[in-house]
Amino acid sequence: MSQISHDINEDPTNKRRVPDLHRNDELGELAISFNEMLDRMQAYMQQQKQFVGDVSHELRTPVAVIEGHLNLLERWGKDDPQVLEESIQASLQESKRMKHLIQEMLDLTRAEQVDLQYPDKTADVNEVLNRTVNDMRMIHQDFTITYDDSDLAPDTIIKIYRNHLEQILIILIDNAIKYSTDRKEILVDAATEKDKVKISVQDFGEGIAPDEQDKIFNRFYRVDKARTREKGGNGLGLAIAQKLVESYHGKISVSSTLGSGSKFMIEFPLLKSKSENK
């Protein structure tokens, strides 16, 4: 065990582990815990490496845009009020985009560590859904957001930090609103099915092509890069939602028809409901 520690200290990516001792005593448990600690440590190191690489890559464009406008102003644009105004507005927009991107990257990194930070948190599904839907209705008053909880058992509890459930729902509803065009209607549905809770968010907007549907949960993936940039997206929202859902042993999927809209579905293991206690 000491030799393995030394090897990993020399090379943090080293995959050496303590072999199975086939013992049910304290020494056997120590070996298992030691291996699990190494796995987790290396996973977090990889997450940090990916975080730095992703942020560095994604910040290049907004930094280049701001630099371009500053160079323009330095050469001659500061004497032209119209160019000056356009450059200031463009730079402000890109700086806001950078701030939003960094926050989303931090959210994604935190989502990958919820098993340590929030191991015992629970949430009342109906309470969180009602509050989130009402908040979204207030923000997006030009949309009709319908919530159907007729198939949801009373006092349905799942194992999740309530802020994370809210974040998942906001991401999905925001995404539905962002890609809705003529029909400004969103349907949110929640149902209890045996040992699961299923929640769906449906829109009637642009839809997603079949060959894109297995890629949309990838970090930084954008179905239409030009339009997504115009709408203010970084391609991280669905990646954050997926990571949060899966961190709480849930599942997320999408059903979509191009030109007719999309339906995102999430499910979580049921912790308890009032109907179970009767």
Automatic annotation (TrEMBL):
Which SUPFAM superfamilies does the UniProt entry name for this protein? ATPase domain of HSP90 chaperone/DNA topoisomerase II/histidine kinase, Homodimeric domain of signal transducing histidine kinase
Q: Where in the cell is it found?
A: Membrane
GO MF entries = phosphoprotein phosphatase activity; phosphorelay sensor kinase activity
User: Ranges for the Histidine kinase domain?
Assistant: 54-272
Say yes or no: keyword Metal-binding present: no
Q: Where is the composition biased (Basic and acidic residues)?
A: 7-22
Region Disordered: start and end of each range? 1-22
Assigned EC number: 2.7.13.3
Q: What is catalyzed by this enzyme?
A: ATP + protein L-histidine = ADP + protein N-phospho-L-histidine
Can you cite an annotated GO cellular component? plasma membrane
- Domain HAMP, first and last residues per copy: 16-46
Q: Which residues form the signal peptide?
A: none
Entry annotated with the keyword DNA-binding: no
Task: Please state what class of enzyme this protein is.
Answer: transferase
Assigned keywords, A-Z: Kinase, Membrane, Phosphoprotein, Transferase, Two-component regulatory system
**GO biological process, alphabetically ordered:** cellular response to phosphate starvation
For this entry, the protein name equals: histidine kinase
Q: Which organism is it from?
A: Lactobacillus gasseri 224-1
